[in-house]
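User: Structure with uridine-5'-diphosphate, tokens only please.
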Amino acid sequence: MKVCVIGGAGYIGSHAVYELIRDGHEVVVIDNLSTGLKEMVHENAKFYLGDITKKDELTNIFDKECEIKPFDVVMHFAAKLIVPESLDQPLEYYHNNVEGVRIMLEVMTEHDIKNVVFSSTAAVYGEPEKALCEETDKTNPVNPYGETKLASEKLIKWVCQKYDMNYCIFRYFNVAGADESLEIGLKKDNLTHLIPVTIQTALGLREKMIVFGEDYDTRDGSCIRDYIHVSDLAYAHVLGAKYLVENHKSLLVNLGSNEGYTVKEVINEVEKYMPVNYVIGDRRPGDPAKIVASNAKAKELLGWSPKKNLSDMIRTDMEFRKKNC
Ligand code: UDP
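Assistant:
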């Protein structure tokens, strides 16, 4: 397959590029490097600096590449994804996350590209109503980040219906870890996600961390999330792309592990390596108490399930961080 990876210099996109290349595919990366890093792009991928909120930039790249050989699949990872930031910058989030997708779809239709793989999120469910979150559950985002992803999902569905295209929408749960090569990983300033923050604290790169609330209705009072390893998640994209090309059918699936860990359990796992200096703070606005995915549908349709566990995520993130940060 020839695959266009938009946002392929970012954390998850760069891992998808690695898995695509390992599986023998031709990869073109487009990234505006606003948060992504050029050094994260695999040396066998072709790289273009471009911004999908600027239609002329995207059109130029598609014109050039599709003249050589059209893309079989376009993958979209180019989103802003920090919940607290989205509450602070709703206009920027809608512009980048929704308008960016709209322009991408427009350019795809103009180049007759039929398959799109889209990174969505568990945040579209909001506060889930039952223990295991299924794809048929009600969507009810509780923050602008989740709203922009749900709006994009709907836009993709309508466009695919109109233009006879197919989509593979993945709703990610919490992603962590680094590629076993340690060449790529989560390397950004101002990290906010729990696992890297905890590891940075253990490594002495932060003085202390805060557990955001211990008065939730969970087994130890801290929030429960479903963590999956970034390489497992990335490989699902290879399977999703192949599914579209082979079956000409759309799908929407959760990518999670069926299991959840509390914030304190994550800290305990990191403390198997090194102590973590933490304090208990207030709840963080916009945080649901518990989100855990059912991955039955991913198993059934794609034959996918996670191969790595929480300790693999912590080990690879820690090794990557020791080496690179
Ligand atoms: N969390 C925390 N301290 C931190 C970062 C996160 O207690 O410094 C908690 C957060 O409140 C949530 C969980 O860890 O319950 C996962 O948060 P993260 O930001 O990693 O991902 P989210 O679930 O918000 O996408």
